[in-house]
Amino acid sequence: MENVLRPLIVIGGSVVLTVVVGWLVDVLLRRTDERHRETPLWGLLRRCRVPLQVVLCTAMFRGSYRQTKIAEEHSAVIGRVLTLVLIGSTAWLVVRIATAVVESSYARYAAAHRDPARVRRVRTQVALIQRVVTAIVGVVAVGAMLLTFPAMQAAGTSLLASAGILGIVAGVAAQSTLGNLFAGLQIAFGDMVRLGDTVVVDGEWGTVDEITLTFLTVRTWDERRITMPVSYFTSKPFENWSRGGAEMTGTVFFQLDHTAPIPQMREKLHDVLRDCGAWDGRDWGLAVTDTTPNTIQVRALVTAKDADDIWTVRVTVREQLVRWLTEQHPYALPKVNTAWAEPTPNGDRPHPVSPEVPRTGRG
Q: Please, which residues have CB within 8 angstroms of residue 129's CB and are 6 or more apart in sequence?
């Protein structure tokens, strides 16, 4: 009877105590969160309940297993398994706590600052800090697990003795990986590019969607994802349209005939911009910027609050001005001078039969 009750008491007591402690901690964190609404830390720490219970339960099993006197011939193996579970659950708990602290700090910063550029910079740094902490904790946990095996402990001395040679070999072999790792840290804390920035890389326009320690993902306007090593952004030039403010100035060019009504076109441009919700009202203008023997080049200048809106303004202006010219002033569109030619009876030069034929097109 004692052989049955002892395991039930030890195992059942450990489970009950774990559940009770987890419930008490959760209640305490919930009440603290209700009293301190200014910080989300206590609410985020409630996510740690499950790993905390696993740590407590495993620790109690590990400490009281010998008292159960179950499978004593396999006690060493079971003890090592419990130790491995304890190390893994502890690493899980540490990662959850670190994530809660980092996310809480970011939430408080975002609530206190209204500058989108500064908030994106901090969000980029926070995301990389979380990955660094997770990687460090994971490496330490795996190392601690390996050291629980006697063979690995015996090999530890020889590994330390050859650490210099291994370090050189690993450095040469992982040169590219280490370069990307340091480039990721440089991007995070050097404020070169941030999550949500609008960039142009290799002729592709898009928004920075994800930044890790080794790669960066750009989401293009047509929903494609371009994944590039972070070392690209530290070694090659690229356009960042979100640096120094998101406001942008755009241009629309038209190739028109010399007879184009520029003053009326300028007034029409202003009317189009007033009806366009994407125009921010900062600036606008229309001027003749170049001439050729057959056409003139007209430039419309517009502004918007960000890259998405400047695209909308430009296509709206281009579409409506071309339509207006086609309907109201078709003579202003480019023409190609053509003529049919017929030979004269005496073999002289041919003379034109038909006048110029207008051909409309988009500038």
A: 102, 188
